[in-house]
Design brief:
It is built from 14 helices and 13 strands. The protein is α/β, with parallel strands linked by helices and 396 residues long. It folds into three domains: 55 residues, no CATH class; 213 residues, Rossmann fold; 92 residues, Rossmann fold (3-Layer(aba) Sandwich), CATH 3.40.50. α4 packs parallel to α5 and α12 packs across α14. The longest helix is centred in the middle third of the chain and has 15 residues. The chain binds zinc ion. The site of zinc ion has 8 residues, from loops.
Amino acid sequence: METTAAFDGLVCTDCGERFDPETTTHDCPDCGGFLDSRYDLNHIDLARDELETRPFDGLWRYEELLPVPRTAAVTIDEGTTPLVDCPELADELGVERLLIKDEGRNPTGSRTDRGHALAVSAAREHGASDVALATTGDAGQSAAAYAARAGLDSHAFVPTRANFGNKAMINVHGGDMNVVEGRFDDAAAACADAMVDEDWYATNPFETPYRHEGAKTMFYEIVEQLDWEVPDGIVQPTGSGVGLVGLHKGATEFAELGLTDDLPALYAAQASGCAPIVEAWEAGDDSHEPWEVPDTICGGIEIADPHGSPLVLDALDDSDGGAVATDDESILDSAITVAQHTGIEMGATPAAAASGAWELAEQDVFGADDTIVLVNDASANKEADILRSHLMGKGI
Ligand SMILES: [Zn+2]
């Protein structure tokens, strides 16, 4: 595996052992814990003015802080998405500034492209022929696109409820799509079963160390786009937790490099029909209990058993953030409000962040001087039918 100069191995988030990324690709060989990429930050010489001289041309501009160099990248120019000021929404929420990080403008329309750029690059470096994952939809589309780019085969296991656009594009990219009766957990079980007999390279959240590694670049970009001001809060729609853990990692690394002074408060936004992270946070637990009967319109974050919950809860605690759940009606209303007041297209799933931000504002969590960022994880095109049905149902 070709790696960057400061990439210093993979460390188990459970037992703390360090492993060589050349020979270790997924979970900890000793205890099965999740692995995390580590860098020798003393040997990374990144100043603000150096970064400012670089073109804003995708996440590979942070190459020193990525495991794989640009020369070995499988890339479709992901990252460097817009951070859009929304003054009307700021007024409504009673904060100084409200901005939306529009991840819908990634190559396949979702934030998961960041993680798949890295994970599929690593897969190719490791000599994989096939990548595979269980997915609520967006990540399957992304995996199929990046596998196509790399000349690899891809296998996606999606629940029946996954949206049509995701399923269609998995096929269009030449991916092998397996629609599994039931919910996400059923798709995950089917994927695990299939992998017993196959030599496939998994790109499941946290099972590969590279999905959250890609997501961390969102934070790097946000803080540069704010002229090095760390926002007071970032609200992230949360299913498996890859986006939130990535934001925390990016914020921690920039602080350790002396590029920023503090961490933003990170907020996990879930739908109240499937909110195991919120439940664990409110109970003060350090891991979740599986959600018994998941039922939300927000299919993209309907993850009843998010295995990465200890990492998510750590990130919330370390950043002095929190977790918030709102119901489907409020979430869909928020998506419509954002579309009609800002022009930004926020899908039903990511609108959990908008709805969650409204709820946090009502709880007086935000201050009048705060700068708050909402992450729009995926384009509304993927869930336009859901939004339109909601709109027609209200007779608007
Ligand atoms: Zn371990």
